Amino acid sequence: MLTRLCEVAIRELRMSGAVVSLMTPVHATGDQSGTIMAASSDRARGVDELEFSLGEGPGRDAFLGSRPVLTPDLERAFDRWPGYVPAALAAGVRATFAFPMLIGAARFGVVHLHCPGARTLTDHDIATSLMLTELATEIVLDTYAPAGDHTPADVPLLGPDDHRDEIYQAQGMVMVALGVSLREALARMRAHAFASNQELAAVAADILAGRTRLEPDPDGAP
Question: For tag attachment on the chain, is the N or C end more exposed, with fewer CB atoms within 10 Å?
Answer without folding.
Answer: C
